[in-house]
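New to this. Comment on this protein:
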Amino acid sequence: MKILTCSNSCPRWEGGQLNPRSPGGLVPMLIELLNKHGGEWIFTAPPGVELADSVTLDGDIVLHPVGLDEELRRRHYDTVSIQLLLGLLHYMHDTSSEPVFDSALSDAWTGYETVNRLYAKRLTERSANNADELILLNDPHLMLVPEFLASQQAARKSKLTYFLGTPWCEPDYFTVLPGHIRTRILESLLMCDVVGFHARRWSEAFLACCARFLPGATIDGNSVTHRGHTTHLVSVPFPLDVDVLDAMVGEPATADWTERLAGMAAGRRVMVRADRIDLWKNMPRGFAAYEAALERSPRLAEECWFVAVATPPSRAAGRHAAYQLATEEAVRRINERFGTPDRDAATLIQPGKGRDSRNCVVAALLMSTAAVVNSTYDGLNLFAKEAAYLLDDNASLLLSANAGVHEQLGTLACTLDPFDIDQTSRAMEEALRAGTESGSGSAGERHALLRSENAERWLEAVFRL
């Protein structure tokens, strides 16, 4: 078996080894699979970094960076992949004014095609094209690669899976895209043997789009037959690497963060959230909900502390900057109203990217009474799985109904309506009560669930092996 994978996301390596491991997500899981099986990884080289066409690592792993100039990167990544497609799949467009499909967006779409064609060319060059080869494509940045691959490889024998770590929107919202673009995306993805998502609701939305926009398609359960080819839909969430998480608990960096956070908590009960500063993470509403809880029960500020651990997105757009300012303003307002000169009621910690930020999250979860995930729409949400694993029996996981991981953890969590500030605030207040009995199920039950999954089982599921 050979794995050949493509992603926009870029791994890091040193001394012939891929590194570092972390508790989960696309890149850490691909690292684990390649370390076990070997294989090749095609990815977008970081901006401003010149790399060789290929890099050979230990364990029969070969990396293939795809270099893009800044203008092409802007059109492919910033304008189409992030602003248009991620905005679409997460329901983030204000359709009263955006998107506007004008000549500028048409030029950006041409850039998206160019990058996808480059990936397909590299993929064709590296493919052995035999039944033992597993080709895994990832995320919305590369949704035309199957189309271009089919045009360059007349008779594919390899198994081809496309996995989207995002949500998928319902057909009415999918009409934000012009007809020729939405048809092309769907038809390209249906050239794969399998299309995978983290949750059934995203798979069902994709099937509904196929049924509505591809008149010639036949839907049969979890499969679509189009132009003589059958594509299967699977719903397989990324696993949490609990062994890595267990190791992080004992790391010196976690101890350092524990000491620092304990000083800031000053003996108060702790509620934590951890997010990348993406628009769909819904941080301003989360702080507004906490502010509403403090308005009802001002003493909570004396007894409790709300800490948010935030990391920046890649190449943040203007909306991200405004969103971060709104988040910071919400924290400032809470502290002006309910904090004291020597005690914040709420704190936004931004430790930066990298492993140290994960140690901060681990330390915060180990001391928390509650963890909050109130995403508007989220493909999975790894933090919710980390919380489910590290919180004790009496702690509560407050989990958005629109996070993909809710299908796994909903019965072990308190469900939030992410748009309802009053409901969220009351759930927070209940979770922060001393001696709460509204915890997220038994730790044993949560541990058993999360230990039952691993990268190898995920691979077998998404390729239907």
Summary: The radius of gyration is 22 Å.
